[in-house]
Amino acid sequence: MMPETAPTIDLQRIGLRYGRGPEVLSGVDLRLAPGSFTFLTGASGAGKSSLLKLCYLSLKPSRGLINLFGQDVSTLKPSQLQVLRRRIGVVLQDFRLIDHLSVWENVALPLRVAGRARADYLTDVNELLSWVGLGHRVDALPPTLSGGEKQRCAIARAIIAKPDLLIADEPTGNVDPAIGARLLRLFAEMNRMGATVLIATHDLGLIDEVSARTVHLADGKLGEGLGPLRAA
Fold first, then answer.
1. Does 230 map to a domain?
2. Could you tell me if residue 221 is inside a domain?
3. Which residues pair with 136 in a beta bridge?
4. Taking the complete model, does pTM exceed 0.85, yes or no?
5. CA–CA distance from 22 to each of 16, 25, 146, 220 (Å)?
6. Comparing C-alpha atoms, which of 210, 207, 226 is closest to residue 218?
7. Residue 95, by phi and psi: left (phi above 0), alpha (psi -120 to 50) or beta?
8. Disulfide-capable partner of 65 in 4, 12, 130, 214 (CB 3.0 to 4.6 Å)?
9. What is the per-residue pLDDT across 26-58, written as a single tens digit (0 to 9) for each?
10. Domain limits at 175?
11. Does some domain include residue 125?
12. CATH number, domain with residue 16
């Protein structure tokens, strides 16, 4: 049993470089408490996506320690890492929808993979798709969707299993302000239900809508607050 007080994410002295290039991240420390809501800001190319990839175990650091849910991920077997990943919902900028599956099937996929019966989640998937404005597109295939529709489908897929940790990379970048506000309310509701939420964004309006911690990435280092973004 993991201690209840263990941070959801605990990055210690993280360094990351690609190949022999310079460090993209250098000496990064980040601790997110269970049930917290945090925005990650930084200029394009600052390394925000790389930092998020470390948090959802898509990358390994060049140096430093990553603890998720109180566990040192470097000590875990592949089967244990797989179990850990199931506790994380991820929204990526490239969506990664499965083209031969319908919108409904894409959103339901995490529940199907977890072994749940279709009858158990039929209503949940339909209600969530209606909430994100895709109730009329349940049978559509991803190649027929607009960028905004793909974004909403990816978000619905990320949260359908009610993950303990929700990580989103520019989740409102392809939607209009009204849909963006609705999606933010969805993230806030997930947070109220106990999920730890980490969102990378350039949208200062989005940040203003939620009373949440903000951390800023610049020159490979992480600091508290918005950095130069607010002044701009």
1. no
2. yes
3. none
4. yes
5. 9, 9, 37, 10
6. 226
7. left
8. 12
9. 999 999 999 999 999 998 888 999 999 999 999
10. 9-225
11. yes
12. 3.40.50.300
Confidence of residue 231 (pLDDT cuts 50, 70, 90): very low
Phi, psi dihedral angles at 87 (to 5 degrees): -90, 0
Is 2 domain-assigned? no
Number of domains in the chain: 1
